[in-house]
Amino acid sequence: MSKFLKLFAIALMLTSCNAKDDNLSEMIITTSEGDVVYQVETATTKEEMAQGLMDRKELKADSGMVFHLDGAKDIAMWMKDTYVALDMLFVDQEGKIIWIYENAEPLSTNLIQPAMSEPLSVVVEINAGDVQKHNIKIGDTLKHFLIEK
After folding, report:
1. Rounded to the nearest 5°, which phi and psi values hold at 52?
2. Under the phi-then-psi rule, with left for phi > 0, alpha for psi from -120 to 50, and beta for the rest, what region is 109?
3. How far apart are CA 18 and CA 122, in angstroms?
4. Residue 137 CB-half CA count within 13 A
5. Is residue 96 one of the residues assigned to a domain?
């Protein structure tokens, strides 16, 4: 019976890993140095956007989360209950990065609010340091299924 329980536990772990991976989609950032590919989770509902990356202790390399804003103009983000330092990319409806916030402080309740009037398509959260590592700049473009072109 213990062999059965061990096999069941392993199968359950594998199933939960696969279920989470099913929520991933590919995002490509085109920089002056070439394409950078990420596997990202998407937050499209109010609940998913409110939860974001809260309570996570780590974020895998070349992964992140895309928040679907669908043309919002006034947006504010924060790091409440988020343990991982993040870089944030604010992207317009054409897929162009129009504002970058680097190294957002974990657990901070300070608002991160871009001063702009352009409608946003998405905000992307990636590991802090990725903007520098991949030389991501304002004007670089992003491809993801949530961005209308």
Report:
1. 45, -130
2. alpha
3. 25
4. 6
5. yes
What CATH code is carried by the domain that includes residue 46? 2.60.120.1140
Q: Which of 105, 106, 74, 79 is nearest to 90 (CA)?
A: 74
Number of neighbours of residue 13 by Cβ within 10 angstroms:
10
| Type of residue numbered 63 | S
Residue 18 lies in a domain: no
* Dihedral over Cα of 14, 48, 70, 80: its sign: negative
For 1-43, write each residue's pLDDT tens digit: 444 434 333 433 433 333 345 589 999 999 999 999 999 999 9
The position carrying tokens 């394409």 is 35
Q: The pTM is what?
A: 0.83
Domain coverage including residue 61? 24-143
* Count of domains observed in the chain: 1
Per-residue pLDDT tens over the stretch 73-114: 888 899 999 999 999 999 999 999 999 999 999 999 999 998
Residue labelled with tokens 């992964």: 63
Residue 76 counted as domain residue: yes
Round to the nearest angstrom and report the end-to-end CA distance of the chain. 56
